[in-house]
Amino acid sequence: MTAIIQSQDNENVVWHSHNIDKAYRSDQKKQKPCVMWFTGLSGAGKSTVAGALENRLAELGYHTYLLDGDNVRHGLCRDLGFSSEDRRENIRRIGEVAKLMADAGLIVLTAFISPHREERQLVRELLPEGEFLEVFVDTPLGECEKRDPKGLYKKARAGEIKQFTGIDSEYQAPEHPEIHLQAGDKSVTELVELSLCSLKERQIIR
Ligand SMILES: Nc1ncnc2c1ncn2[C@@H]1O[C@H](COP(=O)(O)OP(=O)(O)OP(=O)(O)O)[C@@H](O)[C@H]1O
Ligand SMILES: [Mg+2]
């Protein structure tokens, strides 16, 4: 089947639907695709928890892909800087890639600070209802600053990094996250178990 898409730049771009579709690919993998969008301050534990959850899902036989932080800036988004326009475009591209991966039937995990509600909403709107799971890794600033594994808070406090989230740039906490991990005083194992329970409740996994 084909459909004419009235795209912004080209009125004559035609969408071609193929036989092997998202439903087929997800059935094959015995899972429901979704995008688990981990958000939280630097040092909150997004990469750690998303990585440990991905390990656990792999052990259970599920098919995943983890898109993590700065990695995308080496390729997909290497032309982008850190102006608000570029940050928005960075998140938009990541959202589009996550959407393609969910279309491939995968459970996609992303780990970006993504401090603005508006940018997270933009990604939510790219995906069908129920496929975007906002995961708030809610670790108090004091704890993140104590951990400071990259030494970034120290630099931000010394004025060597400007516009650092939580210090001189706002982090807008999710208002209604699908999964709220109060992560400051819980072990990674506990946080992984809480996330797995939520995936089961939503019938993403069995
Ligand atoms: N639940 C936890 N309990 C104790 N330490 C943790 C926990 N989760 C993560 N950590 C530790 O906190 C530090 C920061 O974790 P991580 O790198 O996952 O943060 P992040 O949210 O991905 O940060 P960034 O946005 O800078 O990439 C690491 O040293 C990690 O080992
Ligand atoms: Mg990280």
Per CATH, the class reads Alpha Beta
Largest sheet descriptor:
5 strands, parallel
Uncertain runs are none
How many structurally independent domains?
1
Name the overall outline: globular
The proportion of strand residues reads 15-25%
What is the number of E strands?
7
Bound molecules: adenosine-5'-triphosphate, magnesium ion
* Separation, N- and C-terminal Cα atoms: 33 Å
Write the CATH fold name. Answer: Rossmann fold
The structural class is alpha/beta
What's the number of helices? 7
Rg, please? Answer: 18 Å
Domain APS kinase: 32-181
Pathway: Sulfur metabolism; hydrogen sulfide biosynthesis; sulfite from sulfate: step 2/3
Catalytic activity: adenosine 5'-phosphosulfate + ATP = 3'-phosphoadenylyl sulfate + ADP + H(+)
Organism: Photobacterium lipolyticum
Walkthrough of the structure:
This protein has helices spanning 22-29, 46-59, 84-103, 117-126, 141-147, 152-157, 188-201; strands at residues 2-5, 13-16, 34-39, 64-68, 107-111, 132-138, 179-182. With 206 residues, it is of the alpha/beta class. The protein has one domain: Rossmann fold, CATH 3.40.50.300. The strands form two sheets. A five-stranded parallel beta sheet has the order 4-5-3-6-7, sandwiched between helices. α2 packs across α7 and α3 packs parallel to α4 (117-126). The mean pLDDT is 94.
